[in-house]
From TrEMBL:
Source organism superkingdom: Bacteria
Keyword entries, A-Z: Membrane, Transmembrane, Transmembrane helix
Transmembrane helix found in the keyword field: yes
The protein, known as: Putative membrane protein
Pfam families registered for this protein in UniProt: TPR_19
Membrane listed as a keyword: yes
Length: 243
């Protein structure tokens, strides 16, 4: 049994590109070596560890929801650099102050980071969140024109939402359709279904919702939990369309 466990970790070490001395440790000291490898290499890179870190971070935000914003504002007040302004803009957007976040993102794009796609993506999100859909469309389209492969699915879904918010329903549907056809992810399917329900496309919404439910039923509980926010939005949109 000890050797089998050591072999499992040895395969992990090879596939993950660890130093070759781990193989010596694992097979020379099967029990102790496996334990050390598990604690120092395997666990920190596992989904369990990442999930625990996310849970701790979420708990921290729940206990002190304005902490990130206060720290970002303090850092920017002390040193108003472009980097600190970017972090402040992201914190403002996360805190719900999309209008102020959009202004900070716009200011960042006027300086040496004018071609930074992450900043432009943040600007598009902020403008969409504060109801300025035309600016959101402009920023998302600028990203696609400058770097078509930059976070392609994220940009495509954001652009589709921006088109819908701007009243460009035909372009929104075409963008959702193309995004789902290209990526085939649950997110692209769910966002398409939500749009269809909200746009009054009942037949399309029902078909997409049924497809999404088939996917959800095959998921394990942890996967469902991870996607709970999107599932709730999907369910709410479907109920609204059926009302």
């Amino acid at each position: 049994m000890h050797v089998l466990i050591a072999l499992f970790f040895a395969v992990h070490a090879v596939r993950s590109g660890q130093q070759t001395y781990w193989l010596f440790i694992l097979f020379s000291f099967p029990l102790l070596g496996s334990l050390v490898y598990f604690l120092t290499i395997y666990l920190p890179s596992s989904r369990l560890e990442r999930g625990a870190r996310r849970a701790v971070a979420a708990a921290g935000r729940a206990l002190d929801p304005t902490r990130d914003l206060r720290e970002a504002q303090s850092a920017y007040d002390y040193a108003p650099t472009a980097q600190n302004q970017m972090q402040l803009a992201a914190a403002l957007l996360a805190a719900g102050d999309a209008q102020t976040a959009a202004q900070h993102y716009e200011d960042c794009l006027k300086g040496p980071f004018a071609t930074d796609m992450e900043i432009r993506l943040g600007a598009a999100r902020a403008f969409l969140a504060c109801g300025r859909s035309a600016q959101a469309v402009a920023h998302a389209e600028a990203i696609r024109q400058a770097q078509p492969d930059f976070r392609a699915e994220t940009v495509s879904l954001l652009l589709a939402r921006a088109y819908a918010a701007d009243g460009q329903e035909a372009r929104a549907q075409a963008e959702y359709e193309a995004t789902h056809a290209r990526f085939g992810t649950f997110e692209s399917l769910a966002e398409y279904a939500i749009w269809a329900a909200e746009a009054g496309r009942a037949d399309l919404a029902e078909r997409l919702y049924a497809e999404a439910r088939q996917t959800i039923t095959r998921w394990s509980r942890p996967v469902r939990t991870q996607n709970q926010a999107l599932i709730r939005r999907l369910e709410a949109a479907q109920r609204g369309a059926s009302a």
